[in-house]
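User: quick one, fold this
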Amino acid sequence: LIQKMKSKNGPVVIDARTGAEYKRGHIPGAVNASFLMILLNQAALPKDKNRELVVTCVTGHRAAQAKWLLGFRGYRNTSLLEGQMKAWMESNLPLEK
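Assistant:
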């Protein structure tokens, strides 16, 4: 994911955690978009529904729900972050606050 994020048209990371969790540390450039935010059209999602999205949360449950809802909203190029935020943090990968 880090290599893809460095490219010009890298994926948009969608962080499906709560705002408080997101503020404690998130993948650089990630968009905070919980299931409820997506449901209520309050998430800052890309206008291009073909844009690659990588969805994450702590362990994967909320990310899977958000991915489903994004698909329902017409986003077709979505995937889940392997290992989710738990693995990202355990690997000491960059976080933004």
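User: anything notable?
Assistant: The mean pLDDT is 95.
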